[in-house]
Every structure is written in structure tokens, then in C-alpha cells.
Amino acid sequence: xxxxxxxxxxxxxxxxxxxxxxxxxxxxxxxxxxxxxxxxxxxxxxxxxxxxxxxxxxxxxxxxxxxxxxxxxxxxxxxxxxxxxxxxxxxxxxxxxxxxxxxxxxxxxxxxxxxxxxxxxxxxxxxxxxxxxxxxxxxxxxxxxxxxxxxxxxxxxxxxxxxxxxxxxxxxxxxx
Length: 176
Fold this sequence. Notes:
membrane, 2 domains, 51% helix, alpha+beta, 176 residues, transmembrane helix, transmembrane
């Protein structure tokens, strides 16, 4: 029981953040949950300093500090999403090449580590030319989609709720 309590206080917050950031959720949701987890771990560290019986547990304090560092690093850098994107980048580029040659791809489908619900390609649109770049939507919603966009970070023409720059060609966005 003691090991479970230690695990739930030290390892659970960063573990949940890693899983949530790979969903992928919109960046604001990850940050909200991350701040909640960071506050939880910070309170835990303060409790360890105040309660004399637990002060002798140096290993537990070190684990709590590592947990807090992981939570903060996920909030700031979103490294689990970056790592998953890095492994998925060749598959993204392959799909982009297929779509640009005019090939029709069935959705939903898995591309790399991500489940893509809908693929939208640039080209003629009903009201002119669609120049927003290739879109690989991981979440489709009437109020705004979430997913990967192949476009310059300086040329995003979307109603953005959040924007996460992955590199010069791919962005992760959530529309409002």
C-alpha cells in the first residue's frame, strides 16, 4: 500500500501529462492539467519539508523533485508531442506527397503515431483557392478542428485557439 501511495504522489502527475500530451489535446488543456499537477507536486514537496517524520526520506524528496521537473518540462516544451511527431514525420511527409499527387486517402487512418480523422488538401474551393496547406485533423468538431497543418508558422490563416510550432513546415493547431 505504501508503494502505491508513493507512486500516486510522485509518478502519477508526469505519467498522466505524458499520456495526455500524446492524445493530442489542445495545448491550453495540457497546460491547465500540467499546472494542476505541478501544484499537487509542489504541495507534496512543501509537506515533506514541514512534516519532520518524512524529512528523513531523502529518496522520496528527490523523486518528488524529479516529478516536478518533469511536469514543468512537459508544460513548457510539450516534449512528448514533439517526440511522437519526430517519429511520425516521415509518415506525414509520405502522406503529403501522396495527397499532392492527387491520390485520395481513406480516413480515419493512422499516420505515424497519430490517428487522423480527416485529411484536407489545398486546391480549388467553392469560394476561390484554398491556400491553407495540407491539414491532417486529429479532432474534427463543428466549432473548430485540431490537428497538424503543413504551412509556414508565419502564414497560418486559421481561427486559432492554440498553435504549437513543430518545425518550419508542420504546425499543430487547434481552431476556436
